Amino acid sequence: MSALAAYATSTGEAFQFWVLGTVAVVGALCTVLMRKAVHSALCLAGTMIVLAVFYLANGAYFLGIVQIVVYTGAIMMLFLFVVMLVGVTAADSLKETIKGQRWWAAACGLGFGVLLVAGIGNAALTEFTGLGAANAAHGGNVEGLAALIFTKYVFAFEITGALLITASVGAMLLTHRERTERARTQRELAEQRVREGKHLPPLPAPGVYARHNAVDIAGLLPDGTPSELTVISTLRKRGQVRDVSTEALADLKALEQRSAERLGRDREEEEAGR
Fold this sequence. Notes:
The protein has about 270 residues and is an all-alpha fold. It has helices spanning about 1-5, 10-35, 35-55, 60-85, 90-95, 100-125, 130-140, 140-150, 155-175, 185-195, 235-240, 245-274, and strands at about 220, 225. The chain has 12 helices and 2 strands, in the order ααααααααααββαα.
């Protein structure tokens, strides 16, 4: 009876599988087909959450929590924040930085597909005891995973940890910039600016003396012309700087005209009073 119960599927389980499985497949396809990297990351996060629900529904509570906390909550959100801060467009993804990387990616995808089909076929054709019996044999899901990781798969686990540490150290070395000279102090930097005669006073903030106090509006110089140095280079390269120089100059001219008219009236009143 227990062997037959392992292969039996209730109506609720079937409904859950087909609904969540459809969501997972759609999310995986959107991850590949979306043109924006942020949307792809969000779709992948949704697929990972669905996988976590599958784990929890099948009794693998530890894997389900790890899937949500570690993969979806930490790794994917970190990747999403990096993409949002750095900015990756669809045009960047079409540039091949490594020669033949698309063919290697297609070969790896095909190999992964073969392994996936072989694993599903093996699970469908052979008998299995189920998670209930596997968890009961070691006193629980966490205990069963610990027994497998630290006994049968201990070498694979240690090799995986060594690979992750090596990748972390390699990423740190690649991003680290070795300094060959002593860092200059604020006083030395100020003295250098004085000697070169460049930007002695601090630059005005974006939008100062303009119509709006916004980061995408250049500040105006005393003569009314916009200063490109007040807007960061990222916005200038993206073409996201709003030009208000014409309006600002018109306002300045109107203000000067009103001031001149007011000054003239004051002088006329003073002369009339004398």
